[in-house]
């Protein structure tokens, strides 16, 4: 592709241009689709649509995995026609990404109330039959999706939910209007622009040097423990949230912390999970669990955690009445954070 970057580098007596990488070309294309309604409408002609109903994605089952089917604009128009829906409903769709070949990906919810249709939710079973799939709650399906579909459907659900909840201007009370890509909504009466939001959440794996601290909430599946998590309060830095959450939930003071990685998380309504390692002073490890937030918390050895990482989620009660200790699945950043801690511990215990 003969695309050149606008920033030229001067070498001796002539200008030379660096061709844009596929990644840069793709990000620039997505930027254009968000800014230019006509370009985005054009992209819908050749793009594909992922379908939702009441925020549950349409999925098909294939060998213990879920797959997210895609539909062309033509197929979608035909489907809407068959169910007596206005094709204008497609204007509710949101842009969620594109391929390296610039095939744009959109998501559309056929079950949420729309200004173009009010009775779509009545057709759910018939639509499932027609589409040869089922609308399945993302919470149930997430861990049986491949990483790419999981990430895309999470983004799509968060964006669709945000649009559904921001139909009206909080200042004028008037209906807001989304741009074609769905990257913003505007109130026509006062031009206030609303952008999709997500809540920053820290997730911290506390260690005392040899053990790590894991906790569970009563809402977790039986036997599952995870690292400590908490929403950032307004005005806080990530470091302040970590110190506060660890103090609040287990009564310990963080000595040092280190950023690990981040992940978009669709629950409860679109969060940015910021994962960090933290340490406490070796002598100050007595846990005082805040029972309003947690069911329990405890220190675990390297070997206990390494074994639990290999265990798949299980709800089978053991003979002594307890449930096996297990950790969140691979897709969750808490799993990756805990895995990194185990690997680091393994390396540091190897003879030099
Ligand atoms: N991806 C992962 O690996 C992973 C692992 C653990 C937790 N999480 C996510 O982290 C989130 C936060 O963890 P937590 O429940 O321990 O948080 P938390 O300890 O802050 O407690 C939750 C409480 O915080 C309050 N809160 C403050 N701001 C909020 C907001 N913007 N949205 C909702 N509630 C808000 C509410 O009262 C809520 O009951 C969970 O919703 C969970 O989905 C993700
Ligand atoms: Mg918490």
From TrEMBL:
Keywords: Hydrolase, Magnesium, Manganese, Metal-binding, Mitochondrion, NAD, NADP, Transit peptide. GO terms for molecular function: metal ion binding; pyrophosphatase activity. Pfam families: NUDIX, NUDIX-like, Zn_ribbon_NUD. Residues 196-323 form the Nudix hydrolase domain. It catalyses: NADPH + H2O = reduced beta-nicotinamide D-ribonucleotide + adenosine 2',5'-bisphosphate + 2 H(+); NADH + H2O = reduced beta-nicotinamide D-ribonucleotide + AMP + 2 H(+); NAD(+) + H2O = beta-nicotinamide D-ribonucleotide + AMP + 2 H(+). PROSITE patterns: NUDIX (PS51462), NUDIX_BOX (PS00893). It is found in: Mitochondrion. Its EC number is 3.6.1.22. InterPro entries: NADH_PPase-like_N, NudC-like_C, NUDIX_hydrolase-like_dom_sf, NUDIX_hydrolase_CS, NUDIX_hydrolase_dom, Znr_NADH_PPase. Its cofactor is Mn(2+); Mg(2+). One of its GO terms (cellular component) is mitochondrion. Belongs to the Nudix hydrolase family. NAD(P)H pyrophosphatase that hydrolyzes NADH into NMNH and AMP, and NADPH into NMNH and 2',5'-ADP. Has a marked preference for the reduced pyridine nucleotides. Does not show activity toward NAD-capped RNAs; the NAD-cap is an atypical cap present at the 5'-end of some RNAs. This is NAD(P)H pyrophosphatase NUDT13, mitochondrial.
């Amino acid at each position: 592709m003969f695309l050149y970057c606008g920033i030229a580098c001067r070498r001796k007596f002539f200008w030379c241009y660096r061709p844009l990488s596929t990644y840069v070309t793709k990000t620039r294309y997505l930027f254009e689709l968000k800014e230019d309604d006509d370009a985005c409408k054009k992209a819908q002609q050749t793009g594909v649509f992922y379908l939702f109903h009441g925020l549950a994605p349409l999925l098909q089952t294939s060998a213990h995995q879920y797959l997210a089917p895609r539909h062309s604009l033509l197929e979608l128009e035909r489907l809407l026609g068959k169910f007596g829906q206005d094709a204008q409903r497609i204007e509710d769709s949101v842009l969620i990404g594109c391929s390296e070949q610039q095939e744009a990906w959109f998501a559309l919810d056929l079950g949420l109330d729309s200004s173009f249709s009010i009775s779509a939710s009545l057709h759910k079973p018939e639509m499932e039959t027609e589409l040869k799939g089922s609308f399945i709650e993302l919470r149930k399906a997430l861990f049986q999706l491949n990483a790419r579909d999981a990430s895309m459907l999470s983004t799509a659900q968060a964006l669709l939910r945000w649009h559904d909840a921001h139909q009206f201007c909080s200042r004028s009370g008037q209906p807001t209007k989304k741009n074609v890509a769905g990257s913003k909504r505007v109130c026509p009466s006062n031009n206030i622009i609303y952008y999709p939001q997500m809540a920053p959440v820290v997730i911290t794996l506390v260690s005392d040097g040899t053990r790590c601290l894991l906790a569970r909430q009563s809402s977790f599946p039986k036997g599952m423990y995870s690292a400590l998590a908490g929403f950032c309060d307004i005005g806080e830095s990530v470091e302040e949230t970590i110190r506060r959450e660890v103090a609040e939930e287990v009564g310990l003071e963080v000595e040092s912390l280190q950023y690990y990685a981040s992940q978009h998380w669709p629950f409860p309504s679109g969060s940015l999970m910021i994962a960090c390692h933290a340490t406490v002073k070796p002598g100050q490890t007595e846990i005082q669990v805040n029972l309003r937030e947690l069911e329990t918390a405890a220190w675990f050895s390297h070997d206990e955690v390494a074994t639990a990482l290999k265990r798949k989620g299980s709800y089978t009660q053991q003979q002594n009445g307890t449930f096996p200790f297990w950790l969140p699945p691979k897709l969750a950043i808490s799993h990756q954070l805990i895995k990194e801690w185990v690997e680091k511990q393994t390396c540091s215990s190897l003879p030099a």
